[in-house]
Specification:
The complex is a heterodimer of chains A (about 100) and B (about 550).
Chain A (H helix, E strand, L loop, with lengths): L9 H22 L7 H20 L7 H27 L7 H5 L1
Helix pairs in contact in A: 1-2
Chain B lengths: L4 H9 L12 H5 L4 H29 L10 H37 L7 H23 L13 H5 L4 H28 L12 H33 L12 H35 L6 H14 L15 H29 L8 H24 L1 H7 L3 H31 L5 H28 L13 H31 L46
The chains are: A mainly alpha (about 100), B mainly alpha (about 550).
């Protein structure tokens, strides 16, 4: 368990807190802007950035062993599996070339 | 394996202070950080929920004795089978082996003094208890009628029962299992005794490691899904409402992403129990140890890729269904590896026909039927006919009750002398295993036929021609209930009146059999050093 004792400093915590507050404010501001097809992309981008900061600093993953990185990475991999397989369903629903009402029959 | 005078003498010479008598009073139990005491607390708690879930099952079987709905109304019946499912899945099956036998044995089997986070372990029990109380309030306060699957839009929009409370209870029970899984992963990685390499670990530990990975990776998804459901129901968010841009089938995707792997949370620990018992009763190393170990991990991983087979008749795309179907067939391979390897272990083994052996036989038979009928359901065409019929009910009971509960009961018998320090009457153990096996088959085999003939699940009024099989099923349920009550009676009796157990009554291999019965608070007088592989059974000793 290398570097267990090297956690984030108070200064880093404050910086992380400030960045999370800024990103939250940005989320609210963006919600009132019409970015067209990028509405969801920008909102999810900000959310992912915040989650990454929390995982790396507040959850100490940045300072943890490679085993912890592996387990955290496994969590992300399985999340991607959830998204990929669920989206595979949504993307391919129309491939039979029938309207949904017929498809369901 | 006969118990010799030397065994009894050795047991009497053992240190008199053990985990059971090193503190008395409620506080010493409720604030304990000892994994063994927490395991006992879990055994008591899950037994209460098993009895409660069993009570609801009995009501279902009573109602189905006649084709008319004459015992209860449709609404009440909906609530009764829902509460049976919710209680059995979230409050008995998921925590049953990991939180009880696993909690007790994993640290001892790896040669550790306790789990890595003893306070977190106690916290998991408290979270479980609070979840159980919430669930009980949901029952007493009018029940919930959505089925254990909480499918939208019924649960989010139409149901007039305690959906939010029941979902909150399941949500909290999930956190309890996350904490248990976390503790196991860290303990197995960091607290193994000197010489205990990964390939010397008992297969029970491997199966708990795989189970813990599922708990850690899957349970957060069901937690957030239930939160989404609560937000939808409470505040009308619209995640699952097409009128607001949502999709009810999205709930099924999210729900089954956890709930299918949850089946493996239930069955993998049971498979671990079987591996230990098979080796012990055959006096042989488990055939193909490495394959059995890796098959646990393979089941855990593949189990995450098959959830869409629950949704073949929903609006899920046919193409996605084909992928899920193929992977579902693949997951049968590691399950079959285990079954074949246990059978191969028995081949030319010096088999001891004790209680454990009876449970091993029972498990093999029931799991085989449960597993093979799963292949029927993973075929997309056949599933259209069988979906939501009693065939499905019979299939998953063969896995989750026939497999899992058989493993739980077998394991409780196998390690009972270690947990309590007392022996139970072996003849009664064998009788109870037979009762469970016979009662189980009589209960659930007719349901395969009923389902194939077209009887849907979750209905309490049915055509007259289904009555004979339903009555047979209800009669079997009575025998099955007896099979569960009898061990409850003689195991309780053994605590007070049973003969003292020697340290290793079965002559089995493993660190748990090298410590005293019951073990001392920190499991071993000295840290054990492991010098050999698991299951190194030598020539049979003559007694």
């Amino acid at each position: 368990m290398a570097d267990d004792h090297h956690g984030p400093t108070v200064r880093i915590y404050l910086a992380v807190f400030a960045s999370l507050m800024f990103l939250t404010a940005l989320t609210v501001w963006v919600a009132f802007q019409d970015l067209g097809m990028f509405n969801d992309v920008v909102a999810l981008g900000i959310a992912c950035t915040k989650a990454t900061i929390v995982i790396l600093f507040f959850m100490h993953v940045k300072y943890a062993s490679r085993l912890t990185w592996l387990l955290a990475g496994a969590g992300i991999l399985f999340l991607l599996i959830l998204f990929a397989f669920a989206m595979a369903d949504y993307v391919s629903r129309g491939w039979l070339g029938m309207p949904m009402s017929q498809y369901l029959q | 394996m006969a118990i010799t005078e030397q065994d009894v003498q050795a047991s009497e010479d053992a240190p008199s202070v053990n985990y059971l008598n090193n503190g008395y009073g409620l506080k010493s139990w409720l604030l304990t950080k000892d994994h063994k005491r927490i395991a006992v607390l879990y055994i008591i708690s899950i037994s209460i929920f098993f009895a409660l879930g069993g009570l609801f099952a009995s009501l279902v079987r009573f109602e189905l004795m006649t084709p008319e709905g004459d015992l209860m109304s449709s609404d009440t019946y909906n609530k009764v089978f829902s509460m049976h499912g919710i209680i059995m899945v979230f409050f008995f099956l998921v925590p049953s082996i990991p939180a009880t036998i696993g909690n007790f044995l994993v640290p001892i089997m790896v040669g550790a003094k306790d789990l890595a986070f003893p306070r977190v372990n106690l916290l998991s029990w408290y979270v479980y208890v609070v979840a159980g109380i919430l669930g009980t309030i949901a029952v007493v306060g009018g029940g919930v009628d959505t089925g254990w699957t909480f499918y939208t839009p019924y649960s989010s929009t139409y149901s007039n029962s305690n959906v939010i409370l029941a979902a909150m209870a399941a949500f909290m029970a999930g956190f309890s299992s996350i904490l248990t899984g976390l503790n196991f992963v860290v303990t197995i990685h960091t607290m193994r005794a000197p010489g205990m390499t990964w390939f010397r670990l008992p297969l029970f530990v491997w199966s708990h490691y795989a189970t813990s990975l599922i708990m850690l990776l899957g349970t957060p998804v069901i937690a957030i899904t239930l939160v989404l459901l609560m937000l939808e129901r409470g505040f009308g968010f619209g995640f699952f409402d097409p009128n607001l841009g949502g999709d009810p089938v999205l709930f099924q995707h999210l729900f089954w992403f956890y709930s299918h792997p949850a089946v493996y949370i239930m069955i993998l620990p049971s498979m671990g129990v079987m591996s230990e018992m098979v080796a012990s009763v055959a006096r042989k190393r488990v055939f193909g140890y490495e394959f059995v170990a890796f098959s646990s991990v393979a089941i855990a991983i593949l189990g995450f890729l098959v959830w869409g087979h629950h949704m073949f008749v929903s609006s899920q795309s046919t193409y996605a269904g084909m992928v899920f179907s193929i992977i579902t067939f693949l997951v049968a391979v590691p399950s079959a590896i285990k079954t074949f390897n246990w059978t191969a272990t028995l081949y030319k083994g010096s088999i001891v026909y004790d209680t454990a052996m009876f449970y091993v036989y029972g498990y093999l038979g029931l799991f085989l039927v449960g597993g093979l009928t799963g292949l029927f359901l993973s075929s997309m065409g056949l599933d259209i006919h069988l979906h939501d019929t009693y065939f499905v009910v019979a299939h998953f009971h063969y896995i989750m009750v026939g497999g899992q509960v058989m493993g739980y009961l077998g394991g409780m018998h196998f390690w009972w002398p270690k947990i309590t320090g007392k022996m139970f009457p072996d003849i009664w153990g064998r009788v109870s295993a037979l009762l469970v096996f016979l009662g189980f088959n009589l209960t659930f085999f007719p349901q395969f036929i009923l389902g194939y003939m077209g009887m849907p699940r979750r209905y309490h009024v049915y055509p007259d021609e289904f009555q004979v099989l339903n009555v047979a099923s209800s009669m079997g349920a009575s025998i099955l209930a007896l099979g569960y009550l009898v061990p409850g009676a003689y195991l309780t009796w053994s605590i007070f009146k049973g003969p003292k157990a020697p340290d290793n009554p079965w002559g089995a291999k493993g660190l748990e059999w090298e410590t005293t019965s019951p073990p001392p608070t920190f499991n071993f007088e000295e840290t054990p050093v492991v010098t050999e592989e698991a299951y190194q059974y030598g020539p049979i000793e003559e007694h």
